[in-house]
Amino acid sequence: MTPIYLDNNATTKVDPEVVQAMLPYLTEFYGNPSSMHSFGGQVGKAVKQAREQVAALLGAEDSEIVFTSCGTEGNNTAIRAALAAQPEKRHIITTEVEHPAVLNVCKQLEKQGYRVAYLSVDNRGQLDLVELEASLTGDTALVTTMYANNETGTVFPIEQIGLRVKDAGAIFHVDAVQAVGKIPLNMKTSTIDLLTLSGHKLHAPKGIGALYIRRGFRFRPFLLGGHQERGRRAGTENVPGIIGLGKAAELELQHLPEAVKREKQFRDRLEKTLLEQIPDTQVNGDRKSRLPNTTNIGFKYIEGEAILLMLNQHGICASSGSACTSGSLEPSHVLRAMGLPYTILHGSIRFSLSRYTTAAEIDKVLEVMPGIVERLRALSPFNSDQAGWLQGREEAVAANR
Amino acid sequence: MWDYTDTVMDHFYNPRNQGAIADTQETGIAVVYGEVGSIACGDALRLHLQIEIQSDKILDARFQTFGCTSAIASSSALTEIIKNKTLDQALNITNRDIAEFLGGLPEAKMHCSVMGQEALEAAIYKYRGIEVEHHEEDEGALICSCFGISDARIRRVIIENSLTTVEQVTSYVKAGGGCGSCLADIEDLIASVVQETAATSRRVEAELAAAPTLPLTTVQKVNLIQKVLLEDVRPMLIADGGDIELFDVEGNIVKVILKGACGNCPGSTATLKDGIEVRLRQRVLPELIVEAVNL
Ligand code: FES
Question: Whose CA is nearest to atom 2 of ligand 1?
Answer without folding.
Answer: B144
